[in-house]
Amino acid sequence: MSAGDYLSVSDLTVKYGGLLAVNKFCMTVEQGEIVSLIGPNGAGKTTVLNLLTGFARPSGGKINFQGNDITGTPPARIAANGIRRTFQQNSLMFDLTVAENVRAGLHTRVKSGFFASLFYSAAFGEEHRAIRIGVDRVLDAIGMQAQRDIVARNLPFGDQRKLGIGIAIAGQPSLLLLDEPAAGLNPDESAQLTALIRRLRQDGITIVLVEHDMRVVMGVSDRIVVLSRGEKLAEGTGAEISTNKEVLRAYLGDGSWTMPAAIN
Ligand SMILES: Nc1ncnc2c1ncn2[C@@H]1O[C@H](COP(=O)(O)OP(=O)(O)OP(=O)(O)O)[C@@H](O)[C@H]1O
Ligand SMILES: [Mg+2]
């Protein structure tokens, strides 16, 4: 595939009232890459993920995914096309168990209908087997087999974040968008998350990561795109970004974020 054939975003723009939340934003992602999207609070990172998944409609620009123009396509259709996301705020079904949450993530892949579920048909039995296998596959991937029967609200915060990723990968996405998966994690949990993100890529999932934790970002990214006030400020490798004067100025000026000494 040549540059931009997998995911390409051009001149993406969205206005909220007088605010240009995202302004003429361009980005390409190659299949198999991990690209991080970083920037100060309010830079427009979540809005870009909302645009990519149909949760927000752009006022201008185009999104191309695997050869199709998906600009303005509704969320369910985009998900069915192989793009899944996690949310900045945990969006679990807190009263259900870990396995039940994962099963809900599989739901859109279930085919046999209402009548098949009333009359235990061969197709229905087959489907149940497929669901069991699907749930096991996800629990293995996120390393949560041992917690499968725990109610989500009783999980430690780090495991709730992991389960959010599990729900997103249940649909076997081609492209996974993660919105600050390390927020609120302790160093041990964020090291585990870094390993999980690497494993997902090895399993063939392409990843766009929105994250403030630079240890995670530097630990997984092939490329980093920096957003500031809705516009692309810089793009490059971790080494390039961590020494880019404009990037450092944007962050220091904002005060919400500082480049950790470890990568300077
Ligand atoms: N639905 C909306 N209606 C109005 N304004 C919005 C909406 N969504 C986002 N914004 C505004 O757009 C700007 C970008 O917000 P966004 O949530 O994309 O930032 P972010 O980079 O994800 O920030 P953070 O790091 O704090 O999560 C902010 O000024 C925000 O208030
Ligand atoms: Mg955000």
SSE blueprint:
Blueprint lengths: L6 E10 L2 E11 L4 E5 L6 H8 L7 E6 L2 E2 L5 H6 L2 E3 L12 H9 L7 H5 L3 H21 L14 H14 L4 E5 L7 H16 L3 E5 L3 H7 L2 E6 L2 E6 L1 H5 L2 H10 L10
Parallel strand pairs: 3-8, 3-9, 6-7, 7-8
Antiparallel strand pairs: 1-2, 1-4, 4-5, 9-10
Helix pairs in contact: 3-5, 3-6, 5-6, 7-8
Bound molecules: adenosine-5'-triphosphate and magnesium ion.
Top-tier CATH class of the largest domain = Alpha Beta
Annotated CATH topology of the largest domain: Rossmann fold
N-to-C SSE string, H for helix and E for strand? EEEHEEHEHHHHEHEHEEHH
Task: Please identify the structural class as seen in this structure.
Answer: alpha/beta
- State the CATH architecture of the largest domain: 3-Layer(aba) Sandwich
